[in-house]
Amino acid sequence: MGLRPVELRTTTLGETWTAGRSGRRQFLQATLAASAATVGFPMLNLGSFRVFAASPTRYSARTVELMERALVIDMLAPLVIDFRPEAYARTLTEQEQAAFRGSGITGLHNSMNTGGVRAVEQTLEFLAAWQGFVGRHAATFTLVGRAEDLDRAKSHGKVAVIMGAQNAEHFQKPDDVRRFYQLGQRCSQLTYNSQNLIGCGGTDRIDGGVSDFGAEIIEAMNEVGMLIDVSHCGDRTTLDAIALSPKPIAITHSNCRALNDHPRLKTDEAIRKLASKGGVMGITGVRNFVRDREPTTVEHVVDHIDHVVRLVGIEHVGIGTDSDLNGYDDMPADQRKDLLAAYKSSYAFRDRLDTDGFDHPRKMYDLTEALIRRGYSDAAVIAILGGNFRRLLGDTWT
């Protein structure tokens, strides 16, 4: 889905991070309080493991072993779905930090939509605020500047944070790309859902493709080594960007339109051309992007992975959940209402935003179990969980 800065009514800090997150948040804190700050895996029986000591959920020994081995990268994962300054100004409790460490996720692409007349100021504020947040929680997080920082985070048991933006309106001239790269930005969508000076968004009525100015921005991004993302771009803009970029690019968080006819999803043509240039597509768990009817479960997320694999091969698919650890459905009601109101009717939201079985901090364990059930090999699972995006980042962040 992606995020955009909307005006939110005030809520107390405790309501936002505990009661506002409903029962799952409270259950998680109770679970983590009973376990170590770093995850242990007490064996139960028959090779079955309980990842969190107080949780009844059991994962296979193979899943636990794969999650321990894999460099798990979520290529669209805001640290917290909350746009108020309190979100990044506060200090996380030890239980909340343990939730990140216990998720098994090595790298999170922390990104949001900025735009409009304050695009430059909004993006500067976002980069400053969340890089400061990471710095104040150095025992848990580490910033990413190079692909090797992801490897280092894995070896040190930390969560690596990639700073990005889900729009490029703050690039008002090509030289701005280098400026924002130097300030920590490592990935940028070219457009959000609507047209800007670079190209068109996925919910625009007409897509004229990448503009001359947009071609200059793409050239500048390649020159400094910033990853190009076309997740929210329209069909023509997506194809133009792939063709114009000499380096591979990303669709960090989208799904396959062949399985779900939604304007935010990508055509088989786009997926093929992305793969032909070495790009990677991240599959999202946002419910209305996964399936247009009920039930919508983690198994249907894997359907989209299957489709990409059959279409272009295992090397070109990854994960971009488009949510924080807990997802959207336990946001405070007022924030959720305001968030949904910011999108066009073509988004076709339903009562729930999160996919069943993919809406909690251990979601990558559940996804791994689902991939194993589909018959994916260990090497394939590791590639999907993050190996493919690690390769892409190493190829583009130069």
Give an overview of the whole structure:
Helix 9 links the parallel strand 7 (187-189) and strand 8. The chain is of the alpha/beta class and 398 residues long. It has helices at residues 13-17, 22-33, 61-69, 85-89, 94-102, 119-136, 148-156, 175-182, 212-224, 235-244, 268-276, 287-290, 298-312, 333-341, 363-373, 378-396; strands at 48-49, 59-60, 73-74, 107-110, 141-143, 159-165, 187-189, 227-229, 250-254, 280-283, 317-319. It is globular and about 55 Å long. It has 16 helices and eleven strands.
Describe the structure in brief.
By secondary structure, the chain is an alpha/beta fold. The chain has helices at about 15, 20-35, 60-70, 85-90, 95-100, 120-135, 150-155, 175-180, 210-225, 235-245, 270-275, 285-290, 300-310, 335-340, 365-375, 380-395; strands spanning about 50, 60, 75, 105-110, 140-145, 160-165, 185-190, 225-230, 250-255, 280-285, 315-320. Helix 11 links the parallel strand 9 (about 250-255) and strand 10.
The SSE string, one letter per element, is HHEEHEHHEHEHEHEHEHEHEHHEHHH
CATH class descriptor: Alpha Beta
Report the uncertain regions: 5-46
CATH topology, by name, is TIM Barrel
Q: Distance between termini?
A: 29 Å
Query: What would you report as the Rg, rounded to the nearest angstrom?
Result: 19 Å
Number of domains: 1
| Helix-residue proportion | 40-55%
Rounded mean pLDDT score: 89
Percentage of β-strand residues: 5-15%
Main structural class: alpha/beta
Query: What's the architecture in CATH terms?
Result: Alpha-Beta Barrel
Using DSSP, what is the number of strands? Answer: 11
Within CATH, the superfamily carries the name Metal-dependent hydrolases
Q: How many individual helices?
A: 16
Q: Sheet bearing the most strands, described?
A: 6 strands, parallel
Overall shape: globular
